[in-house]
Structures are given as C-alpha cells and as structure tokens.
Amino acid sequence: MIFGKGRIEVFLDKYNYLLGETINGRMSLKLKKPVRARGLKVALIGEQKTMQHGGFGGVSTGRGHRSSTQTRCIYNFEIPLDGEKEYTGGEYTFQIKIPENLPQPMLPPGAMGSVLQMVTGTTQRINWYVRAYLDVPMGLDVSGKVQVVIG
Fold this sequence. Notes:
Layout: E1 6-12, E2 16-17, E3 22-37, E4 39-52, E5 60-61, E6 64-65, E7 68-82, E8 85-97, H1 110-120, E9 122-135, E10 142-150
Parallel strand pairs: 2-10
Antiparallel strand pairs: 1-3, 3-8, 4-7, 4-9, 5-6, 9-10
C-alpha cells in the first residue's frame, strides 16, 4: 500500500562494503499521481550515534541509571539522478563510490575502547544508509533508505 504521494524502494547489489568499493543499486519510484519535483537524488549518509550510559562515570538516579542518545549526521554525499520536472514513477540505477577516508567512530577499537566505554559509560557507532528521495517543494519528500555496513 502506498501512503502519502508515493514511495521509493531502494535495492542494492549487496549490503556489506569495504572502503573504496562502489555501491551499485537501483531505486523504484511509485507515485499515486504525477508530482512536480525539484529533482530525484540518491545519497550516502553516515549518522554517528553516541550513547551515554550510567556506567562508572555515568550519573545514576535512585532507581536506575540515566542514559541518553545523540545522533548527528557526519557524512552526506548526494548524487542527482534526474532534474526538475513532473515525475510519474520509474526505475533508476545508480553508483556511489565509497571514499577511502570515511569518518570512523572516535573511540578506539579493541581493549582500549572497551576500557574507555566502561569508565565513561559512552559508546559510539556510525550507521551508514543509502537514501533515495524525490525533492518535492512545498510538501513532504518521497523517500526510501536502506542500511549498509562499511568497514
């Protein structure tokens, strides 16, 4: 079932990548009716999640530990697939080259990172997504995304 203006489905050749590899994919745009848009784009997005737990260094309450999560975008590389026009739907293929120097979590891996996580009560990870979207002026964008692993 299609909610709103429509939907986008993103399909990739695989979901685990190494730095420097190329993501090959396609996206399917399905609309209820024609939509005027500024463009159709695909993006590689990195979101860093920092979780503060009530560990040794954390602040605890009387009945448990307080924790918080912060998410921030640390990488957003967009590629235009099509320009401004009236869209009716369709299939589009794309390629995204993964840079060799993508951001990595700030805490070191291995034993030292584990010790820091225990002492500070902080863990970090980066979630990577491929997101395709129809940039609709004066309205909600139509979008779809899939998570990928880059390491």
